Structure prediction request, 319 residues.
Amino acid sequence: MAFTLLSSPLQGFTDFRFRNAFQKYFGGIDTFYSPYIRLNGQFKIKTSYQNDLLLENNNTLEVIPQVITNDADEFLFVAKYVQSLGYKELNWNLGCPYPMVAKSGMGSGLICKPSKIEDVLKKAHSETDILVSMKMRMGYDNAEEILDVFPILDQYPLKNIAIHARIGKQLYKGPVDLNAFERCITSTKHKLYYNGDITSVQAFKTMQERFPSINHFMIGRGLIADPFLPQMIKNNTTTYPKNRWEIFEEFHNTIYQQYDAYLSGPTPIKMKMLGFWEYFSESCSNPQKVYKAIKKASNPVKYQNTVNEILNNERKSKN
Ligand SMILES: Cc1cc2nc3c(=O)[nH]c(=O)nc-3n(C[C@H](O)[C@H](O)[C@H](O)COP(=O)(O)O)c2cc1C
Prediction:
């Protein structure tokens, strides 16, 4: 069955620089969600969010903006902003698990408050013509919370509901709950997208076989850990291109140069790349050793030498 692959947003990782480089060197993703916009009580869009969404920074990509809020006026403000840029859809984040966010009744902390969700959706649908989609977990404390939200969601013409098959209090740990996700499929009239732990071609196939009615799949961390994954899923192959590490090297150098130009000083770029290597290292033969080596690289020259050494080692190893 034909299917669509979407890049699930990762704040701090999947901004426009990453998305463009990813698209150039790897491909396989049909649509990218941008990391969420958060207003923090002020009706002002931060410059970094603006840059992330400008059409000229995304001119070869299909991008859907995302917002995190529990306030109808904030939702409307962001909806109108993204519409002014030319976007037709706004994705609403009810998934973020971080205690600071969830405790303030946002992200996955909003799932247990159906009436608040209704307030936002009501205003969004009466005062704008933006297409709304959702990205949710199944609850914060338990996976039944979402079942009380579906009757409200079913009253609105949402484009889809993407579900990360975990609950908020799990953060990003522990198994996805596939039985609970399956129950969601029969509990709403809306189209569901599956999200969670697609980290290999085999993992994708397992989800596809388990949920034959689902034809939209979102990949988050797996895409950063192995940027070849989406295209390999699309090509139904577990074989990497022969020049795998050359392609990866060019991609790495592209994002390095762009973040280096954007961030000032050696420490921010080091921290940025270390964040990426937490995921990149997972595709290397010895993840812990690779991550430690990057962590130890104390200046840009040492960093570049360490990266060269890592990539040379990978070229020599069999994968
Ligand atoms: C560091 C980090 C940042 C994230 N930022 C966002 C975000 O801005 N918006 C969002 O909807 N999800 C965010 N997520 C959740 C992912 O998009 C995704 O739903 C989750 O990681 C499960 O999918 P995966 O197992 O494929 O990674 C984030 C996850 C991580 C680890």
The first strand starts at residue 4 and ends at 7. The mean pLDDT is 97. The pocket of flavin mononucleotide is lined by residues 8-12, 35-36, 66, 93, 95, 135, 164, 172, 195-198, 219-222 (CB under 6 Å).
